[in-house]
Amino acid sequence: MAKVKGKATSITGPRRAEKTYYLFSILKEDPQKYLYVNFENPVFHPMTARDFTGILDTYRELYPEVERPVVMLDEVQAVPDWERLVWYLLDTGHEVYFNRLLPKASLG
């Protein structure tokens, strides 16, 4: 899949459509350069877009040699105001992938 600089890659679809598997297939190239967060994990509840900076800070402590990780946000719809988080990451020079469920009305 071709990336466009300054744009996020959105992976959408119904539940069980292998969206997470697709993210894993990308990050296996070089796992340390990717920051993968699954927002369905209870550790991240409740999470706000503002809270994500703490996750970035922790990543930077663990991998100081990676200037800007490629950020993968799995089930991002669980984060209120998630669009602001994606814009923030793009504005700070991160490559961003995110997946989310399509609303049920979109599936019919």
What structural class do the secondary elements suggest? alpha/beta
Rg, Cα atoms, Å: 14 Å
How much is the average pLDDT?
A: 85
> What is the tally of beta strands?
4
Largest sheet features: 4 strands, parallel
Contiguous low-pLDDT stretches (5 residues minimum) are: none
Please list the strands of the largest sheet in the order they lie side by side: 1-4-3-2
Compressed to H and E, one letter per element, the order equals EHEHEHEH
Whole-Å distance between the termini?
Answer: 27 Å
What helical percentage do the residues reach? Answer: 25-40%
C-alpha geometry:
globular
How does this model look, in words?
- With 108 residues, the chain is α/β, with parallel strands linked by helices.
- The protein has a domain at 33-102.
- It is built from 4 helices and 4 strands, in the order βαβαβαβα.
- A 4-stranded parallel sheet has the order 1-4-3-2, with helices on both faces.
- The longest helix is centred in the middle third of the chain and has 11 residues, at 52-62.
- The mean pLDDT is 85.
